[in-house]
Amino acid sequence: MNIKLNKLLNKTSQYEDYALRYVPQKFRQWSPSVVAITALGGIAYLADFSIGASIGTLYGTQNAIYSIIFAAIIIFLTGIPLAYYAARYNIDLDLITRGCGFGFYGSILTSIIFASFTFIFFALEGSIMAQGLWVGFKIPLSIGYLLTTLIVFPLVMYGMNTLSKLQLWTTPLWLILMATPVVLVIYQNPNFIHQFLSYTGSTTHNSLNLAAIITGSGIALSLMGQIGEQIDYLRLMPTKTQANYKSWWLAVFAAGPGWVIFGAIKQIIGIFLAVFILNKVGIGLALEPVHQFIGAFNLFFPSWFAIALAVTLVVISQIKINVTNAYSGSLAWTNAYTRITKTYPGRFVFIIFNLLIALILMEADMFKTLGFILGFYSNCAIAWVTIVACDIVINKYLLKLSPKIPDFKKNKLYAINPVGFISFIVASGVSIMAFFGLLTKELAPYSPLIALILGIVMPPLIAIITQGKYYSKSTNVDAYANELINNLSYELFMCQLCKNKFEASDMSIVPLKNNEELHVCSLCETIN
Questions:
Q1: DSSP H or E stretch at residue 518
Q2: The pLDDT of residue 163
Q3: Does residue 511 register a pLDDT over 70?
Q4: Rounded CA gap, 16 and 8, in Å?
């Protein structure tokens, strides 16, 4: 098995992007700005327009805007510690989660939650692209779903090298096409802003309504898992030095929690364009971004050109985001599968697996139940991200009950850490019960708030009860841990199983009988 693994690592390392391990210095050759632009390229998705339009047409413009702002603040604050840890220690969110309260096997649950995020949003974005192909070329939706799936595979299989080029080349055109519709509508109809702000939605909320705001924020908070996709790029950041100090921090904030600022703006634009075309196309088509853009472009351009511009924007946007969805999904599934089965098939297998699930969802027309799916899923996403963020801020830095360095290696971690694992079960479980009205109908709109509050309260409570003893099996800081703390020495150490060389941050010392030790890399440790 070790010989096969050795061949696999040598053959596919350029494609694997260190899916299950610390990213070494030799691989992290991109500048902070390139990493940030690549990460932000992934937020080109148009689901924000649909999400904003969905909230706005239900609860009215003012309630929707407050919902979006509330959700954005929560996402931004929880994203800061996660983004910093990914860039500082060069590991993805799954590996961070292991050492931030969940344990080596406990974090399998959150890997599956994150993988679910990627195929749900791949399906949503693929549906939007298929709608564009239908409008532009009359390609049947079922065939469009297949095309949107197939076009992504050859792009995502080559990892960061290809994704960085794709995002850099397409971002300027995407920005121009996205901003133009808003400018056209305001220029042609300056009085429409008042109409937009006074729109009350299908539920006719003439004034601010707390239940409507919280329910709407629950839909927007389903995007909380997006920080995981941002981190899949941020883990590739170069080491912070005096020379790149400012650009490093700017990139971490912009590409980490900063993504939600752009996301919130897009959601509000989605409401704006939906209200603008509502009387012309009806509420169903008003939720579809391709019709939103066509309605705006039609103000100045002939119909055929407006359709061409809208379809171009949809196709560019969906390719930009769905390569990220497929890429991040493959990493999450690989992480979970490798720990469960102790085999390493490579992330190629899970690119295909993730795309197949997304295709099934698209063919099942999940777009029609967008609000329900995202509202339900948000309970899990909020609980997970909030728990990990609070473990970093509260348990690690304030209470000092959790090791500041998020170790991800099997030998150092307990199988399950009750701090994060139990917190997640309680927070997501109670909020889902509230979502379905099992805790009285009055609490149903507040399920996102329940997940958030429990996600903040539970981790420090359980950490205090357990005195943090389930975070790490190691009581001593070994040589490899010292290297991780300093993160400055990049000496290579040979794994005694696969015979490849790795930096200290990816190595473990596994004690054997007769006081012998085995020096192994984190992947060999996982599958043995």
A1: strand 517-521
A2: 59
A3: yes
A4: 10
Total-model pTM = 0.87
Tell me how long the chain is. 528
DSSP string, 85-114: HHHHHT--HHHHHIIIII-TTTTHHHHHHH
pLDDT at site 171 = 73
Angstrom distances, CA of residue 512 to CA of 509, 517, 519? 9, 5, 10
- Can you name the residues that pair with 519 across neighbouring β-strands? 509
What digits encode the pLDDT tens for the residues 123-148?
Answer: 888 888 899 999 999 999 999 999 98
List residues bridging with 521 in a β-sheet.
Answer: 507
Structure tokens at 200: 């009350």
Q: How many CB atoms lie within 10 A of CB 131?
A: 23
Q: What is the DSSP string of 119-188?
A: HHHHHHHHHHHHHHHHHHH---HHHHHHHHHHTTHHHHTTTHHHHHHHHHHHHHHHHHHHHHHHHHHHHH
Highest mean pLDDT among 25-34, 249-258, 505-514: 249-258
pLDDT at 523: 87
Tokens coding 289: 């971004």
- In order, the DSSP letters of 220-288 are HGGGGGHHHHHHHHHTTPPPP-SSSHHHHHHHHHHHTTTHHHHHHHHHHHHHHHHHHHHHHHHHHHHTS
Token readout for 35 is 């990493």
Q: Which residues contact 375 (CB under 8 A, 6 or more apart)?
A: 215, 218, 219, 222, 435, 447
Does position 485 have pLDDT exceeding 50, yes or no? no
Q: Is pLDDT at 114 greater than 70 in this prediction? A: yes
